[in-house]
């Protein structure tokens, strides 16, 4: 038979065990609540993106950035990406002159410097792709252009980008490297304008980017030339200081630099950064 003293000891032990179980359950509940609270805080720290992102981008980025803009809008319902494509120099001048934009993607560090010299950038420009020159000729290459030297023939109507535009500066660099002199029938304000002269058969050839030749498809024929390797352009991108939608702008830049974005750009013919 259990003594009164023994029964009292068991009762005390049982009460202590129950207290420990209650404390443990309470602690577990608190941890769970804390985890949920932390999770909620994490979710709220990533606000839903909305509004318009205005992107100023080099003309050669038109096809690939348009695709990325659609992908961005699909991934972030409620957003809209608007683009202004053109010569990097004129876009940079517009930005420093106060034109409203969130992102600037230039076709050369030199034109990006126009913006950074005025401290109109909010982040350090980062190279996201590179691009190489190619000769665009009429379909079928009826003039049998096979080299940069062939473009110096007086019988050919050749178009270049203006030297203030990255594609024009790169073309002049390639010509200098090969010690060639070329007098074009016109200098165009951006690479798309130069290419269009050939598409419309207003010129026999133009020195443009590989990406533009690829985008034109059967409308032109591309001719590679070795001197182009000495004039490869790096493309930098930056968030602008006066961006009206900085969070969405940062997200668009992240998409451009992502694996998905790089896949679209390399598919358009761009080289890796």
UniProtKB/TrEMBL annotation:
Keywords (alphabetical) are: Metal-binding, Signal
Q: Domain of life, per the record?
A: Bacteria
Decide whether keyword rRNA-binding is in the record. no
SUPFAM superfamilies tied to this protein: Periplasmic binding protein-like II
Q: Pfam families from the entry? A: SBP_bac_11
Gene3D superfamilies xrefs: Periplasmic binding protein-like II
Q: Does the keyword Signal apply?
A: yes
CDD domains listed in its UniProt record: PBP2_ModA_like_1 (cd13538)
PROSITE patterns, alphabetized? PROKAR_LIPOPROTEIN
Q: Which residues form the signal peptide?
A: 1-24
Spans annotated as Disordered: 28-48
- What PANTHER family does the record tag this protein with? MOLYBDATE-BINDING PERIPLASMIC PROTEIN (PTHR30632), SULFATE-BINDING PROTEIN (PTHR30632:SF0)
Task: Family membership, please give it.
Answer: Belongs to the bacterial solute-binding protein ModA family.
Protein name, UniProt field:
Molybdate ABC transporter substrate-binding protein
Source species:
Streptomyces coacervatus
Q: Point out the gene that encodes the protein.
A: modA
């Amino acid at each position: 038979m259990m003594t009164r003293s023994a029964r009292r000891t068991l009762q005390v032990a049982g009460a202590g065990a129950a207290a420990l179980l209650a404390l443990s359950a309470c602690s577990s509940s608190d941890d769970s609540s804390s985890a949920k609270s932390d999770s909620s805080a994490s979710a709220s720290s990533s606000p839903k993106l909305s509004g318009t992102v205005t992107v100023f981008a080099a003309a050669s980025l038109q096809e690939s950035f348009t695709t990325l803009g659609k992908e961005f809008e699909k991934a972030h319902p409620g957003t809209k990406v608007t683009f202004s494509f053109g010569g990097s120099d004129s876009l940079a001048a517009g930005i420093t002159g106060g034109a409203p934009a969130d992102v600037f993607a230039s076709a050369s560090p030199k034109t990006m410097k126009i913006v950074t010299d005025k401290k109109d950038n909010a982040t350090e420009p980062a190279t996201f792709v590179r691009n190489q020159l190619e000769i665009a000729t009429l379909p079928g290459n009826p003039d049998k252009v096979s080299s940069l030297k062939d473009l110096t023939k007086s019988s050919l109507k050749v178009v270049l980008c203006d030297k203030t535009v990255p594609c024009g500066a790169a073309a002049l660099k390639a010509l200098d490297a090969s010690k060639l002199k070329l007098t074009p029938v016109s200098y165009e304000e951006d690479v798309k304008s130069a290419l269009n002269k050939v598409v419309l058969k207003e010129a026999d050839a133009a020195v443009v980017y590989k990406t533009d030749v690829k985008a034109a498809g059967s409308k032109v024929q591309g001719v590679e030339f070795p001197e182009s390797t000495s004039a490869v352009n790096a493309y930098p991108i930056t968030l602008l200081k006066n961006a009206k939608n900085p969070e969405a702008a940062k997200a668009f830049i992240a998409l451009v630099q992502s694996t998905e974005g790089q896949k679209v750009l390399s598919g358009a013919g761009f080289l890796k950064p």
